[in-house]
Amino acid sequence: MNIKSNEKKENSAYELVIEVGADQFQAAIDKVYNRQKNRINVPGFRKGKAPRKMVEKMYGAEIFFEDAISLAYPDAYEAALKETGLKPVAYPQLEVLDVSADGFTFKATVTVKPEASIKDYKGLPVGKADVKVSAADIKAELKPYIDRASRLVSVDRKAKKGDTAVIDFEGFKDGEPFQGGKGENYSLELGSGSFVPGFEEQIVGMKAGDEKDLDITFPENYAPELAGAAVVFKVKVHEVKEKQEPEVDDEFAKDVSEFDTLDEFKKDLGEKLKARRQEQADRDFEAAVIDALIEKLECDVPQAMVDYRADKMLEDYANRIQSQGISFDNYLQMMGMTLDELRAQSKTTAERNVRSDLALEAVAAAEGIEATDADVDEEIAKLAEQYKMEADKVRELVSVEDLRLDLAMRKALELVKGAAKKPAKKAKKAEEAEDGAEEKPAKKKTASKGKGKPEAEEA
To answer: Is residue 437 a contact partner of residue 430, using CB atoms and an 8 Å limit?
Structure first.
């Protein structure tokens, strides 16, 4: 391998012209020949027995060139990166310039990490939301437990919203029953919205034994055979049931939780809700800090770097889907999306992630932040525990250099978050008082005409 030229281009790119000599190319051709010879027919020879020279004489010397180039260029490319010290952040753009039996020459356009700088990253105007839990919040947390412990009781009255009506129904279009429009002893919760619009509303007011024809028009976006159609449902109500909730007391708490009293149960629900909200507030705060930090970044980000990150995100996503036993192609069909549409969506997130990393790296560089060997060892130990592996095995599987950089970026993020300042809020009352003073000047006192007493001073 020989690097014929190394030229710096725009957009953080380098153009390498790399030459692969005859020895390396011929070795690659031999490997390709040995892989393919059992599939090549040469008159007078059994399959796999024709010498390479005979194959080339019959089909042309170039028969193995394309596959040999594909086989040889990765090693040449990696050797060129090592020699030049370039660290690509995207897939290279490759172009074969010439090829013969004596070797080939190709051009590789290599995108590297752009230069990035950042200023005024301390004191970003970002605040964290105050997390509170009210009595109404705890009541809402209790509701699912109450619903699960509730029971339906038959009542002798007209149905109202929230009741469950046990009904028979059959739908007719132009006087003829249609498929899927019939049900018997169906329990329908009124107000649930589980039936076509207008159906449940017309059941309200009926009681056990009542029969009724419901005039319904299906929505335009319904199934094609019924979209926009006017139909009639014949309905009979067998039973009306109302939901009876349990007494929410200590006994209830014992039944639905591990606590002996309702107060203890409510306290636990409140603490868990507050913890969830705090986690969300922390995530929102961090995202806002990163967005504000990105605004301070001074850098021309190469599109190739963003495209590479988007492709990697898609690759990881596809692997997660397939690990669940679902073909990624089938998943895309179920979601009604194409791969290009998903890639386009990924690029927005990919660009934010790239800019975030560059900004945090710039902060780390400005602050002299580095991850120590102890930091790396601690992180590897955490990964080993998480994945139930030996630490040495984790060290083999991960890039220690990348891990060290990631840890430094985390430290940089904590520094920026810690230095962020919540924007000051103006006192509303003071503003209102100032506005009132400008709009309505105070009136002077005036003497009373009647009894000589001064009138009340108007504000």
So the answer is: no
Q: Is residue 92 part of a domain?
A: yes
Please report whether residue 308 resides in a domain: no
Distance CA 84, CA 77 (A): 11
pLDDT at 426: 62
Tokens 């040469």 correspond to what residue? 42
* 20 and 104, same domain (yes or no): yes
Last residue of a domain, one of 82, 111, 140: 111
Predicted pLDDT of residue 458: 35
Tell me: pLDDT of 70 over 90. yes
Distance separating alpha carbons of residues 22 and 103, to the nearest angstrom: 4
Query: pTM for this structure?
Result: 0.74
Determine the Cα–Cα distance for residues 199 and 195; give it in Å rounded to an integer: 6
If asked whether residues 124 and 155 sit together in one domain, one would say no
Higher pLDDT, 425 or 395: 395
d(CA 266, CA 262) in angstroms, rounded, equals 6
Total count of domains within the chain = 4
**CA atoms of 35 and 29, how far apart (whole Å):** 10
Residue 427: is its pLDDT beyond 70?
no
Given this model, what pLDDT does residue 54 score? Answer: 87
Pair (136, 193) in one structural domain? no
